Each structure stands twice: as structure tokens, then as C-alpha cells.
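Example S7 (C-alpha cells).
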């Protein structure tokens, strides 16, 4: 516990500009949290129409955090800049990638980011299930890549896994950890391994809950049992929050491609019912 609290505390790294690529569930919230902590943030997405809703969601968070102080909300919003062309990548101290969980797409993005980024900028991926080494090998200098793995919902959850790949340099690790501290999160140092630490534990737990649903127990009953047990959120609601598509992909990555996810999960994903983000998953959210 003491070592965990001290981890990264010594870092004098004080990033002023963070560039986030991907304005989806995670990227939008990561950008918002960095802006709240006083950093300038540029937010890039290949689909321009994804950026505006992310900024609107951030504005609602700023209003809650600044308790309606309109001036503070304005200042914080001014720090969060829509950047569809990705100009911010050339000036940022930290670049965080939170795009689709697709190895080829992430590899080509990082090859481009490496060319554009300042030499001392931290290059970080928020991947949940891809091997860091498989992304890093797309870089001229793989030691620059680190995992900074946030949890959903980002504004509420303090834990962030700082993932050390086989090639990650000590300095990059130190800076990444320092950055996580600067945004008031708790860095958890982990090695690159399937599921890192948290999802390696959570995966089987969530899967077991979905199997109970498969056997005919209502999601509400499963969730009620686990919240009574002391969990802040039931496992089925957690699957809806994470996104059913992400859960399928992460489950495959964790258990190997041979493992079949529960049939109802696959059926919901095929119907576009991806959880909270699409308005329906195991629960209805509208
Ligand atoms: P999402 O689908 O909500 O958002 C991804 C965004 O990336 C989309 O807006 C898309 O337009 C954009 N994008 C895709 N390719 C791009 C490119 N080449 N350039 C610019 N933008 C691009 O996804 P998400 O749930 O936010 O997940 C993003 C990443 O975070 C994934 O790697 C995922 O594994 C990881 N992650 C997700 C969660 C979660 O609970 N959802 C938790 C931790 C980590």
C-alpha cells in the first residue's frame, strides 16, 4: 500500500499540453479530466461529429465539478480544444490514444504520431486488450510507448494502470506515472500481460455473472446480490457500462480466441445493443 502510494510521486514531470486521439467513451472523458486539472487539451477524432458531443459531455462534468461557477466552467472549457486535424500532436507533452481496439489501425496511427510528436513527448495507448509490444513495434523507437489504461467512467474512477511494455524506457515510465499523478489519479504499475491486473481479475467475475443471466437469473437479481456483497456496481450493469462490444473483444483477448462468449451477449452485440452508449444492452438506458 505504501509503495503504491509513493509510486511516481518523485516525478517532476509537469505536462501542460495533452493531445487525445479518439473522442469516444474513453478519449472524451480522459480529455475532460485533463482539462479539469488545468492542462491544455487538444481532442482529435477521425469523425468530426464525435468531438462535439464529447465536449458537451465534458461541459456537463465541468458544471458539476465547478458547482455551477460559470466563469470557472468557461475557463476549463477554453482549455479543451476540438482538433479534428490533429495539429496538437506536434506540440503536446503527452499524447494519449483512445481509438478503436484494432491493432492495425493503432499501429498506423502511432507510426504517424511518432513522426509528428516532439521527441520528449510521452506516447501512450489506452488499449485494454492488445499487446503493447505489438503496437510498439510499429514505432522507430519502441521504447517511447507506454500504456496508460484508464477505467470507465474516467471522472469517477481513481485507478489508472501504467503499463510497462518489454521495450518501454524507464524515463517514459517515470513521465507517464508523473502525468497520472498530476491528474489526481492513482497509478498502478503493471507489466504488459493479458488484462493487465484489473481486467484479469474482473473478466472471469463478469463472465460468471453473464453465465448466471444465461441460465435464467434476471440481471437485476445478479446485480442486487453483488451490490449487497459490497460492490459499488453490479457486474451486469458494469458490462453495460463498459460496452458489450468491448466486453466481447476483451473476453476473447483474455481467454484466447477459442473461448465462446455467452450467446445472449453475442446476440445483443449483433443487434447493436452495446450497453449504455447505445441506449440498451442487458438493461434499457433511455
Ligand atoms: P469508442 O468506440 O467509444 O471511441 C473510439 C473513437 O476513436 C471513435 O470516436 C472513433 O471515431 C475514433 N477513431 C477510430 N479510429 C481513429 C483514428 N485512426 N484516428 C482518430 N480517431 C479514430 O471506444 P472506447 O470505448 O472509448 O475505447 C477506446 C480505447 O480505450 C480502446 O482501445 C479500448 O480498448 C480502450 N478502453 C475502453 C474502455 C471502456 O470501458 N470502453 C476502458 C478502458 C480502455
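Recovered sequence:
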Amino acid at each position: 500500500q505504501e509503495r503504491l502510494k509513493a509510486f511516481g510521486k518523485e516525478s517532476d514531470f509537469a505536462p501542460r499540453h495533452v493531445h487525445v486521439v479518439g473522442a469516444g467513451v474513453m478519449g472524451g472523458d480522459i480529455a475532460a479530466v485533463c482539462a479539469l486539472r488545468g492542462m491544455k487539451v487538444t481532442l482529435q477524432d477521425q469523425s468530426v461529429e464525435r468531438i462535439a458531443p464529447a465536449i458537451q459531455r465534458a461541459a456537463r462534468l465541468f458544471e458539476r465539478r465547478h458547482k455551477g461557477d460559470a466563469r470557472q466552467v468557461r475557463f476549463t472549457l477554453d482549455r479543451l480544444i476540438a482538433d479534428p486535424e490533429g495539429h496538437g500532436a506536434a506540440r503536446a507533452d503527452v499524447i494519449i490514444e483512445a481509438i478503436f481496439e484494432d491493432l492495425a489501425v493503432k499501429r498506423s496511427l502511432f507510426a504517424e504520431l511518432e513522426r509528428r510528436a516532439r521527441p520528449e513527448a510521452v506516447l501512450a495507448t489506452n488499449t485494454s486488450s492488445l499487446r503493447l509490444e505489438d503496437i510498439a513495434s510499429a514505432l522507430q523507437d519502441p521504447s517511447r510507448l507506454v500504456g496508460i489504461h484508464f477505467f470507465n467512467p474516467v471522472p469517477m474512477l481513481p485507478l489508472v494502470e501504467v503499463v510497462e511494455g518489454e521495450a518501454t524506457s524507464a524515463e517514459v515510465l517515470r513521465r507517464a506515472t508523473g502525468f497520472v499523478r498530476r491528474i489526481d489519479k492513482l497509478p498502478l504499475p503493471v507489466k504488459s500481460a493479458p488484462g493487465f491486473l484489473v481486467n484479469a481479475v474482473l473478466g472471469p467475475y463478469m463472465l460468471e455473472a453473464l453465465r448466471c443471466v444465461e441460465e435464467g437469473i434476471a440481471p437485476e437479481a445478479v446485480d442486487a446480490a453483488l451490490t449487497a456483497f459490497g460492490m459499488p456496481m453490479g457486474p451486469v450493469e458494469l458490462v453495460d457500462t463498459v460496452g458489450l462490444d468491448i466486453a466481447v473483444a476483451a473476453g476473447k483477448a483474455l481467454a484466447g480466441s477459442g473461448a465462446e462468449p455467452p450467446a445472449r451477449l453475442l446476440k445483443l452485440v449483433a443487434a447493436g445493443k452495446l450497453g449504455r452508449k447505445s441506449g440498451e444492452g442487458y438493461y434499457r438506458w433511455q
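Notes on this example. Residues 21-27, 44-47, 50, 98-101, 105, 109, 126-128, 150, 152, 242-243, 246 surround nicotinamide-adenine-dinucleotide (CB under 6 Å).
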